[in-house]
Amino acid sequence: MSLLRVIDISKKNKKGFELEKTNFTQAIGQKIAIAGETGSGKSTLLKIIAGLEQPDSGTILFEGKKVMGPLYELIPGHPGIAYLSQQFELPNFLTVEQVLIYANPLWDEEAEKDEKAKALYKMCRIDHLLKRRTDELSGGEKQRVALAKLIISAPRLLLLDEPFSNLDMIHKNILKDVIKDLSEQLNLSCIIISHDPLDTLSWADDIIVMRNGLVIQHDTPYHIYTKPVDAYTAGLFGKYNTISKKLATSLATILEDNGIASNTFLRPEHFIITNSNEPSFKGEATAIRYFGSYQEVDVLVFGESITIKTNIVNAKTGDFLNITYR
């Protein structure tokens, strides 16, 4: 049985559809990322799954039972689903320990001595913050406390709406480790919304790409990245080359196909500068950009420009390079 089933969920606002017949399933323990431009319906979908917003039509099934929206529940939400929004709030002037105790009355003031509580505090990297007041915390520390506050209720599904968007790199990496530990050690299933491909490609089991309230592509990170269905999807996950049919045919002939003919959108790092005897084509370097650990080189090939990503090479504009595709 699936943990979560999203069935024909639709919602319309004054401007048109926010969501239109959205469908997907999630297995127990599965990690799903939702990507898409602002206004594509991602946050609305997450709130509907959490039971915090009412769809116009469709059904959310969690553990086989229907999730009722706020029209049918006096207190919106589902006890098995934890939702952390971008606008989370913590009570001011309380200590972290007090916030966590008040979140679950079953945890008394000695909760910090309980092994289960101590393990949660450690997983959320807040065990050193218990005596601090919430107004003395950084944004990243507050977010981890808010996350621990949700986990106290022992949810089975964790929904995170842009959890990394306002964090510096240090706190972002800490939160990534926290989410990883929570999902693995507590067997939590997770759905995350994020704009950053680096946050999703290395983390998710599946990625759902949304645009204008529709699911454009639902696939593994590998296939989303290497075989995007359109330019919109390709652009969400990094730089890409759009290869014309004419150029693809020419390169496929030279490279003895090598899979290049079947792909319209090709990533820069899949083009390799080579000095070996393997099949390759020549391109003139027209621009070189330095990024520290790699370079991007614009190359003119058969009258068309493509970008390749390569390690540092001793090349300059005007040079002709031997290039292959892998």
UniProtKB/TrEMBL annotation:
Keywords attached to this entry: ATP-binding, Nucleotide-binding, Transport
Q: What range(s) does the ABC transporter domain occupy?
A: 4-237
**InterPro entries attached here?**
AAA+_ATPase (IPR003593), ABC_SmlMolc_Importer (IPR050093), ABC_transporter-like_ATP-bd (IPR003439), ABC_transporter-like_CS (IPR017871), P-loop_NTPase (IPR027417)
What GO MF annotations does this protein's record show? ATP binding
Q: What is this protein called?
A: ABC transporter ATP-binding protein
